[in-house]
Amino acid sequence: MKLTERNIQGRLFMERYRRGMILPNFTPPQWFECDVFELTDAGYFREYEVKITRSDFKADAKKTHGLSWRDAQAGKTALTKHHRLAMADVRGPAQFWYVTPVGLLTPEELPPWAGLIEISAAITEFSRFIQMGEHEMKKAPRLHGEKASDKIRAQLLTSCYYRLHQKQLCLFAANEPEDYSI
Question: Where are the alpha helices (DSSP H) in 4-62?
């Protein structure tokens, strides 16, 4: 069975939603989009980067943030996400994991600041449900001891609120009668 990013995000959500706030495809202020963002009950920001292919893993090292016009004019260059993680930038996660299908990466291929979680999948005997498991191949080291800022918390809550209302609007639209005439 071939795993998708969405399957893996769902697995991470199901395993972690009781221990904090977790949200897929969330971009914290002054950071990069997180495939899966977790704010622990203790207040730490964790990031899970889902990789389905080796080429996607290699391309990840090139992610940068755009520079402001003023910085570009001053000749500054943008730091990649990998550089910022290696520097333990406090605007980033306190811990970072790559999450992949079994066998895609080895712990030796990872940068020292990253952990590795492997996800396995199988179809149950009734062929209707996907059974997934996860195994931490390499523990993610603590990059820094800073808790998530109030700005991150506020943006997370705003994003959750917005997504909830978008889902609610879709439900309302699906249940609206097509003909309003009496």
Answer: 5-16, 54-60
Instruction: Please report the beta strands in the chain, taking only residues with DSSP state E, as ranges in sequence order.
Output: 20-26, 34-40, 45-50, 95-101, 115-123, 130-138
Q: Which strand (E) or helix (H) includes residue 162?
A: helix 150-175
Of 81, 137, 70, 149, the residue nearest 109 (C-alpha): 137
pLDDT in tens, 77-116: 678 899 999 999 999 999 999 999 999 999 999 999 999 9
Burial per residue of 152-181, b for 16 or more beta-carbon CB atoms within 10 angstroms, e otherwise: bbebbeebeeeeeeeeeeeeeeeeeeeeee
The amino acid that residue 72 corresponds to is A
What is the reported pTM? Answer: 0.83
What are 166's strand-pairing partners?
none
Which is nearest to 93 in space by CA: 18, 150, 146? Answer: 146
